[in-house]
Amino acid sequence: DMLDPERLIQCPLVKHHWIRARRFPYHLVKCKESNPEIAKKLATCPFNARHLVPQADLSKHIMNCNDKAFVEQDVVSRSSESSQEQLNNGSTWQAPPSAEDWETDLLEGSESTFVWASLHYSEQNSPS
């Protein structure tokens, strides 16, 4: 049974290590620290941090990982929930149409052209 916390799992770092499922995450941390040269050669699955595979096999593992389906299913259900939530909350706001037409204004040479100006004070206008 995959959900049994007492089942034994083989360590991906040291093949003769067999660890109870409930202790497996802790073992991985310790075993990586104890075997840094082996750990450098392994990559962590993006779908389940308990999956350590040789770096060269990571792409293949990602394509076939059983946990990938759970992640994808979760993403799909969350996106459909948020879409449904928006509909339920009436969050279907749309911007009102704009009366501005920048292209026409540009072609017609708008009379109210904005110009940056600088103020120059003569010596007469400056405070003494």
TrEMBL record:
As one GO molecular function, the record gives: zinc ion binding
From start to end residue, where is composition biased (Low complexity)? 76-86
Under the heading SUPFAM superfamilies, the entry gives:
beta-beta-alpha zinc fingers
Keyword tRNA processing recorded:
no
Which stretches make up the CHHC U11-48K-type domain? 8-35, 42-69
Q: Looking at the keywords, is Zinc present?
A: yes
What Pfam families does this protein's entry cite? zf-U11-48K
What InterPro entries is this protein classified in?
TRM13/UPF0224_CHHC_Znf_dom, UPF0224_FAM112_RNA_Proc, Znf_C2H2_sf
Write the record's keywords in alphabetical order, separated by commas: Metal-binding, Zinc, Zinc-finger
Task: Please give the residue ranges the record annotates as the region Disordered.
Answer: 76-100
Q: Which domain of life is it from?
A: Eukaryota
- For this entry, the protein name equals GTSF1 factor
Source organism? Cardinalis cardinalis
Q: Which gene encodes it?
A: Gtsf1
